[in-house]
Amino acid sequence: MKRILSAPDIDFAGIRHQLGVDEEYGDDALAEARAAVDRLAGAREDHTGVPFVTIDPPTSKDLDQAVHITSDGDGFVVDYAIADVAALVIPEGALDQESRRRGSTVYFPDGSVPLHPRELSEGAGSLLPEQVRPCVLWTIRVGRDGSVTDVAVRRSRIRSVARLDYAGVTADAAAGRLHPSIAALPAFGELRHEVALDRGAVELDLPDQQVSLTDAGWRLHLEPHTPAEMWNSQVSLLAGTCAGTIMADAGIGLLRTLPPAEDDAVDGLRAAARALGVAWPEDQPVGRFLAGLPGGLPSTLALQSAAGGLMRGANYLALDGSDAARAIPDDKKRHAAIAGHYAHVTAPLRRLGDRFATEVCLALTAGDTVPDWVMRALPTLPKILRSADTLGATADRAGIDLAEAVILGGRVGERFDAVVMSAATERKSAQIFIADPPVIARCEGDLRAGDRIVVELTDADEVTRTVGFRPAGYNSLATLR
What we know:
Layout: E1 5-6, H1 13-19, H2 27-34, E2 45-46, E3 52-55, E4 65-71, E5 75-83, H3 94-102, E6 106-108, E7 111-113, H4 118-124, E8 132-143, E9 148-164, H5 166-175, H6 185-198, E10 208-214, E11 217-223, H7 227-250, E12 252-257, H8 263-275, H9 286-291, H10 298-306, E13 315-320, H11 323-326, H12 352-366, H13 372-377, H14 381-408, E14 415-422, E15 430-434, E16 439-443, E17 452-461, E18 466-474
Parallel strand pairs: 1-10, 2-9, 3-9, 16-18
Antiparallel strand pairs: 4-5, 5-8, 6-7, 8-9, 10-11, 12-13, 14-15, 14-17, 15-16, 17-18
């Protein structure tokens, strides 16, 4: 999970312009989006009688997923409806080509620039309440021990009956008044979370950062994720692991891969925990340690951010169904943080690859041939998706840099207690963490990871989006927790 910063009071238009990110899709692509119809309507089952609900942030309009989950005594039956973007986008047409140029929705602290025109992503393709929508329906049976016992994938149409948000679901769960369609969600989510941790999964859960302008000046505060966000994420992870297993077993599709974390990344995380005064038993796995961090604390933001170093080497692997693809060693097909096979299939309105991976799963589970247009696209997708990830990471970093420069503006010369998160390398300065305001920034000097120091703010420039510090002397600091 990436670091999410919300700062609607700051203008990030300059970053969008610099990165060339805009909502100019071209006349032909826009026309296709506006005229989008379900070209596969005749191939659908009808599940409009099932009371699906969506769970998203309250401002979201591009609703990719709707869920209905029950407990049947032997475990859980999860019905998970995913927006059927492939049925609305003409294969290899103008809109398809434009979405391949973009690769994904790009997020900024004041809003997003969608992968598809809003007419589709927030209209015809979105699983909005009380609207009949085409979808790809995953029905997954999960046993009482959390294992998957059966998977079915087919095209359907549904009608969502309610649009819920995370805070509301969390409050309803605490009050015992959950919507009947997700009454089993907390038990399911907790079970699958435990199963994931038992098998060695590592789930990053960075608290969100909220920037607001108050009478007293700029304020940056942390908002921990709600339990409902974790429960809901387990539904998405379930579908992603099922999809990854289906495609890895067949040797055809598009997998998300990640090699095991390097020892130096784990050692660096342990050093950061020691410096922050956060206990980490030697025999406790990384995933268990991170899952136990209390949300909303500055130290949690620092450690979850540092844990991003465990994810180095994330990639995409296209499998073409050949003998060579099937012969790829299993460890090269796996995602270490998932501790298994994994694929993106649950956010096709926002990520390009999900549309194609879903088509592969539909074909394989039905015993059909994967469509030619999908086969032609598969080998091109890893490069497109890597480029989109790089652009998204650049946008994230630039947005955070600007927000931090704004927040710290006017405070040059002030001193702050800090912890050194990483030492300098040939390519980058040392990184420090400041608890108040919660900021991770560069710092001059030959610093040692884990050291607690006092730093002086030397630079906070909105124009260049730079924030810089230098050591002001060592000091014995109180715990930052």
